[in-house]
Design goal:
Elements lengths: L15 H23 L7 H29 L14 H27 L1 H4 L6
């Protein structure tokens, strides 16, 4: 028995991790750009922006890990080796789970790369 029902493993779960990465990308870069454009009008420093990027990164990675776990479960916990190329419902579900797992891994790495500049950039440059 699982806390998350299997009914949520639909075609839309394939897009979960890339959408989380895209939203994370926008939050980080647009947030930093707005801060740098209006930094003199705001009452906080760039450190707060860096903390916000860290929090957004942590949340995005957690959601992507959840999507990866769901896809790993859908794939049968790796019990079925690819290729999943038979025209059956089982193979379609296995292919979707495997593809979602791969996209989750790619999106996990992409989120880390998006957040990395916040480790090195300590102020806005003009």
């Amino acid at each position: 028995m699982s806390l998350i029902p299997r009914q949520i493993e639909t075609f839309w779960t394939l897009f979960t991790a890339p959408v989380v990465w895209a939203v994370h990308f926008l939050v980080c870069y647009v947030g930093a750009a707005i801060y740098c454009a209006k930094q003199h009008e705001l009452g906080f420093g760039f450190g707060v922006v860096r903390i916000g990027i860290g929090a957004a990164t942590f949340a995005a990675l957690a959601i992507i890990l959840l999507a990866a776990w769901l896809s790993w479960r859908q794939w049968g916990f790796g019990a079925y080796a690819p290729p999943h190329d038979e025209p059956t419902r089982l193979d379609r579900n296995l292919l979707q789970g495997f593809s979602t797992l791969l996209l989750s891994g790619l999106s996990f790495v992409a989120v880390i790369y998006v957040a990395m500049p916040a480790l090195f950039v300590t102020e806005c440059l003009r």
